[in-house]
Design brief:
The protein is of the alpha+beta class. The protein has 4 domains: 81 residues, 434 Repressor (Amino-terminal Domain) (Orthogonal Bundle); 41 residues, no CATH class; 139 residues, Arc Repressor Mutant, subunit A (Orthogonal Bundle); 144 residues, 2-Layer Sandwich (Beta-Lactamase). 43% of the residues lie in helices and 12% in strands. The strands form 2 sheets. The chain has a 6-stranded mixed sheet. A 3-stranded mixed sheet has the order 1-3-2, with helices on one face. α10 packs across α13, α12 crosses α13 and α15 crosses α16. It starts with 21 loop residues before the first helix and ends with a helix.
Length: 492
């Protein structure tokens, strides 16, 4: 008696195909059936099912229940696990699966085009052409969707994740430690020679050139095992750029599929560079000793490992919570007051937009990150307490650095109860902040407003990014044509 001759009986569902989806399962059943020389009708009869039902299973349009899957496996002389394997049974089957999956997706459906019927008569060239066209349409859709809002949301989600783990990533710490072990690191500052040895051990030669593509910091040629850096890099410090380039290899990065991927890869590259240049065990030893003496200082951490102040401050945020049991905040702010980078897990209330994104917001004029610009002494760090409206008191240490975009401040801070561990806690400098209340620092006094509101007509220095589209491409902001031409010119 067949299934069609009886009332339907509820069956146990097949286990979720973690190792494969319905399309792959269907192709594996079809491949096995044809290898055994069975027709669809013969297999259907063997498992007491209608041929149309077996056809839907083979075409990936229906997932079989567990009893049916067992019956099919038995009839084909296979196991259920074999049929559920995740790899396609052949290269041709993999191509068919990719095309079928593409045609059933939302992007293809939005085109309003009738999908092609994939059969034995469909040539490989036709399938590859359909798949290539679909991938290009998907890429264009991703670019069109890459609005500033999407990037800001991705950034906000990433910052929330970083806060949740205390900005500490054990797998990246382990990767950095393994790299250093491989080149015989014995303590102290990590030299440029050791970084060159790391690159060589990973199969890469360093090349300093004068014609670096203007939109890049470095270019890595995976085919020929080369890392290209601008010829001006050695006059500063080549270690961090080399490590950021190698991060794509160490972390197994693939071409980013979204702004979320792009931002995450950038964070991982910066983290790995910091974890190598300020090794965890050595840096924690320095910081733990400083904490015991109640003299934690970003300057001392910077000097101990011969890195930039910004990298030392970043690295401190990686280790502070996990290894020192301190909650902290970090800010990088442009002299205009624009927040460039920010991280916190100590409860400080950063300025943010409606989406919760921090970067691009304006920092209160009374915060350390802004008041430091008014200090004539740029040799010593600036320490300050700030009383937040309804948010307690925070202590912060800040320094002014210079970049091609202008001056910016790098600040690290903690809650009042944790300042006892830091050098500079005795500072007399103290301010109050009532932001986001505009009366705190954004609104001119009544006297000045009355005097100038009808006479002033300033021309805004509109940033070019205000009306520009968000950079597109696999690597946002990078001119792919320029990069490929560069690699071609240096290949031989």
């Amino acid at each position: 008696m067949t299934l069609l001759q009886t009332a339907p009986v509820p069956e146990a569902a097949a286990p979720p195909a973690e190792a494969g989806d319905a399309l792959t399962l269907g192709r594996r059943i079809r491949e096995r059936r044809t290898q055994l020389g069975l027709t669809l009708e013969q297999l259907a009869q063997a498992v007491e099912r209608a041929p149309s039902q077996l056809s839907a299973i083979e075409n990936g349009r229906r997932e079989p229940r567990l009893p049916v899957l067992r019956a099919i496996a038995q009839a084909l002389g296979a196991t259920v696990d074999e049929l559920l394997a995740d790899e396609a049974p052949s290269e041709r089957a993999a191509l068919e699966i990719a095309v079928e999956r593409a045609q059933r997706g939302s992007v293809f459906a939005s085109l309003g085009i009738q999908p092609i019927r994939v059969s034995k008569a469909t040539s490989d060239e036709t399938l590859r052409a359909v798949l290539g066209l679909h991938q290009e349409v998907e890429r264009l859709h991703r670019e069109r969707a890459a609005t500033p809002e999407e990037a800001r949301r991705a950034n906000t989600e990433l910052r929330a994740e970083m806060r949740g783990v205390g900005n500490y990533y054990a797998e990246l710490e382990a990767a950095a430690a393994e790299l250093l072990r491989g080149v015989g690191y014995a303590g102290g500052p990590v030299s440029q020679q050791l970084i060159a040895d790391v690159a060589q051990k990973l199969g890469f030669d360093l090349h300093y050139v004068t014609d670096m593509p203007h939109s890049t910091r470095s270019v890595i040629d995976r085919r020929n095992g080369r890392i290209y850096l601008g010829s001006d890099v050695p006059t500063r410090d080549a270690r961090a750029p080399i490590l950021r380039a190698l991060a794509s290899v160490v972390c197994g990065h693939e071409e980013p599929r979204s702004y979320g991927d792009f931002l995450r890869q950038r964070v991982e590259a910066n983290y790995l560079a910091g974890a190598v240049l300020l090794p965890e065990a050595a840096a924690v030893s320095v910081l733990a000793d400083a904490k015991q003496q109640r003299r934690i200082s970003m300057e001392d951490l910077r000097d101990a490992f011969s890195v930039s102040y910004e990298m030392a401050a970043h690295r401190f945020t990686n280790l502070a919570t996990e290894r020192l049991e301190l909650q902290v905040h970090f800010m990088k702010a442009h002299e205009s007051g624009t927040l460039i980078k920010a991280y916190q897990n100590d409860g400080v209330s950063f300025p943010s937009d409606a989406l919760g994104n921090l970067e691009g917001s304006i920092v209160c004029r009374n915060w350390t990150a802004r008041t430091v610009f008014a200090q004539p002494d740029r040799f010593n760090p600036w320490y300050q307490y700030t009383d937040m409206a309804g948010g307690g008191t925070y202590w912060c240490t800040s320094r002014v650095e210079k970049a091609k975009e202008g001056m910016y401040s790098v600040s690290v801070g903690v809650r009042f109860e944790d300042v006892k561990w830091f050098r500079g806690r005795e500072t007399p400098h103290r301010t109050q902040s009532f932001c986001p209340d505009e009366r705190c620092c954004r609104r001119a006094s009544s006297e000045l407003t009355r005097k100038w509101e009808d006479a002033a007509w300033p021309e805004a220095a509109t940033p070019t990014s205000l009306l520009a589209a968000l950079p597109t491409g696999t690597f946002p902001g990078v001119d792919a044509h320029e990069v490929y031409a560069f690699l071609e010119s240096h290949e031989h």
